[in-house]
Amino acid sequence: MQATIEVRGLRKSFGPTLALDGMTFTVAPGQVTGFVGPNGAGKTSTMRVILGLDAPDEGTALVGGRRYTALRRPLTHLGSLLDAAALQPSRTGRNHLLWLAHSQGLDARRVDSVLEQTGLGGAARRRASGYSLGMRQRLGIAAALLGDPPMLMMDEPFNGMDPEGIIWMRGLLRSLAEAGRAVLVSSHLMSELEDTAGHLVIIGRGRVIADTGTRDLLAAVSGDRVTLRTAAPGRAAAALARAGAAASTDGTAVTVSGLPPEKVVLVLSENAVPFSEVSAHRASLAEAYLELTRDAADYRPDAAGYRPDAPAGGSR
Amino acid sequence: MTATVTPERSGAGRDDKDSFGRLVHAEWTKFRTVRGWVIAVLIAAALTAGVGLYAASGPQTGCQPVGPNGPIGPPAPCKPANPVGPGGEAVSDSYYFVHRALSGNGSLTVRVTALAGRSSPPGGGIAPGPNQEQNFTSGIQPWAKAGILLTASTRQGSAYAAMMVTGGHGVRMQYNYTGDAPGLPGAVSAASPRWLRLVRAGDTVTGYDSAGGTHWARVGVVSLAGLPATVQAGPFVTSPAWVQTQNSGPTVATAVFDHVSARGTPPGTGWRGVSIGAITGSNAQGSSLPGRLHAAEGTFTVTGSGDIAPAGPGPTNIGVPADDGFAGAFAGLIVVIVVGAMFITAEYRRGLIAVTLAAAPARGRVLAAKAVVIGSVAFVAGLIGTAPVIPVGTSLLRSHGNYVFPMSALTEVRLVAGTAALLAITAVLALAAGTILRHGAGAITAVIALTVVTYFFSVPLAVLPAGAADWLLRVTPAAGFAIKQYVPAYPQVNNVYTPQHGYFPLAPWAGMGVLCLWAALALWLAAVLLRRRDA
Prior knowledge:
By secondary structure, chain A is an alpha/beta fold. Helices cover 30% and strands 25% of the residues of chain A. Chain A has a six-stranded mixed beta sheet with strand order 5-6-7-3-8-9, sandwiched between helices. A four-stranded antiparallel beta sheet of chain A has the order 11-12-10-13, covered by helices on one side. In chain A, β8 (199-204) and β9 (207-213) form a beta hairpin. In chain B, 52% of the residues are buried. The chains are: A alpha/beta, B alpha+beta.
C-alpha cells in the first residue's frame, strides 16, 4: 500500500452553497504538497471529507488506498491538524495528547517524544486555555505526529505563528517529506509555502485550478522575460525591437521578452546603449497564485490587505 | 525513517474488542484530566450524602415529654413502634381474639352468620368517657375481617394463618401479614352464612371455605416454618381505620360465630377472649379500640378493631421511611446531569468532537465508550453518596423521636445500589441528550426537567394532583425514583397510596426499567444522529 492520499471527484453542497465541485488530486509521498486557494475555496471541506468527518455527496477520498473511516488506529496512518483551537481549555496540552495516545493504544512515552519534537515540553503541563495561537498550532502538530504516520495533513498550520515558528515549521515540513511521508499543507497565502512545497494543488470554488510542480509553475508564469534598467529606455527599446524582441518601457525599466538575458546584453552593447542592470524576471508564487485565481476567487483582498493572521479558510 | 504503513493485525474480532477498550481508556483519560468534572462528581457524592442527612435530621414527629417547667428529655415516638412480622416488615397486629390452645395436628371450624361495622366520624375522633363509640355511624369497612386464626402466639408479629370473611372482598385466606388469597365471593348474612375451616398438619396449614358446611373448597395452603407444637386458635374480629388523604379514624366490626368446633385441644383448656394491640388512653391517633366478646349458647358475638396486615407509612401510621434520607439523591442528580451532558457538549462547543472522531471514526462506539465512562463515574459517586445515608440517617431520624420503618440488609443493598444506578443511568441519559441537541444548556434543562423537577413537583412538594403525579411517575424518567421505595403497597391494606406517602405507581425495578428505556432510546437516537450528521 502506497502512502498516498487520493481525492476523486468530490462534490458537496451545504444548502445552496456548492463547497466542493469535483475536487480531484493526489498527494504523493516524499514531498510537501501545498493546498492553496482563497478563503472559501474548499480546502477545509476537502480535508474534513478525507477524515470522514463530513460525508461527500459524490466522490471518494482514499488514504493509502482505503477509506479513512475503515482504518484501525487511524492516527498511525494519517496525522491531521484541522483546527488548533479545538481544545478543552481546562485540560493541559500533555493530557490532550495523552487521551489521543490512549485512543490509539499508545502510551505516555510517545506523548513526551512528540512534545519534545514540537518544542512544547515547557508548556505541556499548563492548561490549554493559556496557550497562544502559535502554541496551539504546535500542540496540533504534535497530535498529528503522535501516531508516527506515513501521511500528514494540516490546515493552515502557519496561522498565528511568529517568524521563528514559521521557519521552524518549514524545516519540519521539509524533513517530514524527506523521510518519505506524504504531506498536504493548506494555506491561503502562497508565500508561506515558498521554498517548502515541491508540488502545488491550487483550488478555487471547490475545484482544482492547477496541479503542478512548484518549479514548473514559476517558470510558466515568469515566461522568458528580462528586466533592464537603463538611462535611455527609448533607445534600448528600439534596438531590441530591431533584434526581434518585444520590448515595453515604463520610463526607467524596460521589460523584454523573446530574447534571453545574454542576447539582450549583446544587443545593447552592439548599439552602445548604456544600462545599469539586466536580470531575468522571476515571478513570485504569490504572483502566480493571483494570476491563476483571478477568476476563481470568491473573495480576494488586494495584495496590501494580506495579513499573516487572517482567519483560516473554511467553508463552514 | 521510511514511510511504511503499520501492517494490519490479523484477528479482527480481537482487535475490535481491543479497540473498544482503547476508546474507554481514552474517554476515561479525557474525563479525569478535566479537574472541574472530577470536582463536580465529588460534589455530587457529597451533596447526595449531605442533603440526605440534612433531610434526615429535620423531621420531628415524636412527642416531647413535658414537665412543669417545659419539655424534658429527648423526644420519643408518640406510640409504640409497629411490631415486626416474620418477614422483617412492619405490621399492624391488633384484633379481638377468642382463642384456646391447639396441640399437634388439629383443626378448627366455625360458621359466620353476620358481620357489621361502625366508624368514628370524620375528624370527630373518639368520644371521651366509657363509651368511646357513642358518635360512631354504622358502615362496614371493605377490609374489616372476621374469621378464624391460628397463630404461634398471641404476641404481636407472630406467624399465623387465617380464614376470614371481609366487609367487601368475600372470603380470604391470609397468612403472615402479607399473604392473601381469595375464596368464596359475596357478603355474609344469616341467609348466606360462610363456613370456615383451618387444618394444621405439621408446619402446614390449609384453609377451606363452604357455603353450606357440607361441600368444602380449599382456599390455600401455607407453610409456617417453625410453628410450635402448641398454637393458639379461635375466632377473631378486626376492622381497619378509615383513611383520607391526611386523616384517619378507628372503626369497629362485630361478627357472629356459631358451630365452633375444634379438634386437637388439650384437656382442661377453654376459650378466652383478649384484645390484642388495642390502644387505650387519650391518643386519638390509635386505630385500634378495645374489643369485646359475648358468648351464649354456643354463639360468640365478637367485636374487634384494628388490622392484621403489613404496615406502611400513611395517615394511620405516623412514621418515616428511612428512604427519606435519599432526598439527597436529587441534588447529586443535578450535578451528574450537568457533567453527563457536558462530557459531549463541551466537545461540540470547542470543535473537539472532530478530533475525537478523527481518532476514532466508529462513532457509535465512541458514544458507547463515553456512556460507559460517565455511567461508571456517576455510579461510584452514587455509592459513595448513599452508603452512609441509611445507617447514619436512620439513627438521626430515631434520635429525633421518629419511628423508622424497618428494612432488611438486602433491601438496604438494593436501595444503595439502586440509587447509584439512578445517578448512573440519568448521567447516560444526559450524555445522550447532549449528543442529540449538541447544546449544553438545552440538554441539561431538558433532562433536569424530566427527572429532578418532575420528581420534586410530584413527591416532596406534592403540588401536582395525585393523578397527574402518578401518571408522570409512570412515563417520565422520574419513574426511576421508585427504586427507593421499600415499603410496598398492598391491595388488601387500607391506606393512602400516593407518592407523597412514599408509594410510587410502579414497582422499584419497573420504575428503574422505565428510566433505562428512556436512556436506551435516547442513546439509540443519539447514535443514529451522530452517525448520520457531519461532525
